[in-house]
Amino acid sequence: MSNQRILILDIDGLRPDVFAASLNDPEQPALKALLGAPDRVVSVEALSTAPSITFCAQSSMFTGRSPAEHGIIGNQFFDRFGRLEGRGPKFYAFDVGDLLAVEDALRIYSNADGLLGRLYPAGVTTLHEHISARGRRSATVHHMVGRGADVWLKPDLLQIARMTKGGGLFGLAQGQFDSEMVDKAIALLNGGARPDVLTLYFLGLDQHSHHSGPSEQLAYMRAQIQPALARLVKELSDLGLLADLLVVVASDHGQKPVPDDARHSLRLSFPFERELAHIFDVLGLDVHDYPGETPDCDAVVASNGGLAYVYLRRPAHPWAVPPRFEADVLRVAEAFWAAHLTGAHSPELEGAFKSILVRDVEHGGWAAPFSALDPQGNRQLLDVAFAAEEGRTVIQAAHRLRASEADLSPDVILVANDLEGFYFSAPLLGVHGGLHPEESLATLAFGIGQVSEPERAAVVLAAVREALITRAAAERRPIGIADLTRAVLAALDA
SS3 for 76-99, per residue? Predict the structure, then answer.
C-alpha cells in the first residue's frame, strides 16, 4: 500500500480560464507552491453535470457517479413518489430557493451522514467510503458530502445564511467565510490529525461571482484565496506535510455573466415575481408556489439556474401515476412556447426560452427519455436538436441530459435563453446550471508542488493521467467532474 497523501481544494464555481490565469499569476504564489510548475500539472477542462449546479455536481464529484445514479438531479427537484425519505411526495431545495425550503438547507449538515448521505441510493459509495475501504483516513472541511469521512468539520449554518442571504449589517464577506474554513483545517492539522485525503471546500468564490460577476473571479482568487492558501502552505511546510503531497484543484461548474434585473430573472416567488406561475394560472393548474405549501397541487417547478424542471400530476390521481402526455405534458409545454413567442399568458416570458424538453412517461414508463419540442409541436432527438449549437451555445448537451434521466426527472425541462441573458433565479450577475460552455466547464488539476521522490511523483501523476484522460478516451466520452473520484483513488492505489 502506498503512503500517498492528497489535498483536495474544491473551489466552487472556479472557471477553468480563471484557474489557468491563477496558476501563472505572480500574485498567487501559493497555488504554484502547492501544484508545481504548470508544465508538471495534469490539468483538464472537466464537463459538469446537467444541470451544472452545485449539489448535483458535487455529488457526482464525490461519488464518481452520474446524477441518474446518485439521484441528486439538481439543487432543486421533486420526489413525486415519496421514495427518498418515505414521507410522501416532497419538494427538495438544498439552496433554499424561492419557496424558502430552509429545512433542507439545514439538514445538509445534520447528523453523521448529512442529508445527501441519506438520500444516495444503495450501492452509491462516497469517495470517503472508498478511502476507508482501503484502510486510509479522510477529513473534509465545510463540504456537503461527508458520509464516510473520519472527520467532517461542518460550517456554521448561521454564517452560511449571513453570507448567501444576508446583506448590509447582517452579511458576511465571502472571503471571511473561506478564510475561516482554512483556519479550521489548519487547526485540525495542528491538533495532530494526519488524514490521507483532506478536502477543503471554498464556497465564497461562487457566491462572490454570483453577485459581482464572473469577471471578478480572478480578483477574488488574488485577494481572498491566495492569503488563505499562503497560510496553509506555511503550515503544511512547518509540519513536514508538503513534500510529495498530491494537490487537487477542482470545481463543480463555471459561471456565465447575466443581467441582474427583473426582466431576465424568472421566478416563482409568492405573492410577487411569479413570472413562471402565470402559465399555470391561465391553464387552471395549482402550482406549488408559496413557502410551506404541501405538494397537494397540480404542478411543481424546480429552478436550477439555467434549467427549470416542471413536474405535472395527472388530475385527480396520486403523483406516482404518470401524467397524460398530450393532455397534461404537451399542453403545458406548448403554453410555455406560446409565452416565449408572443408573450401570451405571461408577457414577462416573451423571448425567455432556448429549448423546451419533454418526456412521455405515460407510454414509455419512468425511464422514458427526453426529446426536444419545437414551437410547431414537432419532437426531435436531443442529439439532433442541439447539433447546430454544439460547442457554441451548448456543450455535450444530449450526453449530459441523458446522464440525468431518472424516475425523479421532471416531465418538462425549460432551458433558459441564455444568449439573451435569461435564467431561473433571483437577480444575479453570474449564473450557472445551464448547458452553455461558460457554465458547463469545470476545473480539474493535479500536481505535486514539492517533490522529494521524483520517480514516485511520476508514477502517481501517470496514474492520474490514466484515470482521467486515457480512460475517458477508451470509453469514448468526455472527461467529467465525476472523474475526480476515479483519479484520486488511482493516485492512492498507485
Answer: EEEECCCCCCCCCCEEEECCCCCC
